[in-house]
Design brief:
162 residues; alpha/beta; two-stranded antiparallel ribbon; 4 helices
Length: 162
């Protein structure tokens, strides 16, 4: 069975708009990342929305939850903005136990080069195939349980709470 990739935006998909000198998310770069990585895993991609992490509301989290609960795939990857990954992971972790779900993002947009995006996506694709059912966050080469992860904004990495 395929791995479902749910796309929600975040830094991983940001692109620079020189006209406004701002970051925008006009479309997802996940298909390009999978192509560049020469990914041979069977995936089904679906864009739920394209929002920055701080723009994701509780209703958006509920949409992610419902999609995870209703999709046929038992292995799910969610691209997400890094600032609020822990909140979304908590909602999913408290409500889904019969699937393997991995959330990931990046600290530097894929489009900028020298980004962690491709590495984090590759890590998620591997982790979702190997881990037992549960909700996890993969960032910086590590796998974190949904209830034991935070973004350290001073160091620019994810780490365990304890």
């Amino acid at each position: 069975m395929a791995i479902r990739i749910l796309i929600t935006g975040g830094t991983i998909d940001c692109q620079y708009d020189p006209l406004t000198s701002t970051n925008i998310i006009p479309n997802s770069l996940v298909p390009e990342m999978l192509k560049q990585a020469k990914c041979t895993v069977d995936v089904v991609q679906e864009t739920l929305f394209l929002k920055g992490s701080r723009e994701i509301l509780e209703e958006d989290r509920k949409k992610i939850l419902e999609k995870c609960q209703k999709c046929d795939e038992e292995q799910i990857i969610i691209t997400h903005g890094t600032y609020t990954i822990p909140e979304t992971a908590q909602l999913l972790g408290k409500n889904i136990t019969n699937k393997t779900i991995i959330l990931l993002g990046s600290m530097i947009p894929f489009s900028y080069g020298n980004s962690d995006a491709l590495f984090n996506l590759g890590s998620a694709l591997t982790a979702v195939q190997l881990l037992k059912n549960g909700v996890y966050v993969t960032m910086n080469g590590k796998v974190f349980n949904w209830n034991n992860v935070r973004k350290n904004t001073e160091k620019g990495v994810f780490e365990e709470l304890q």
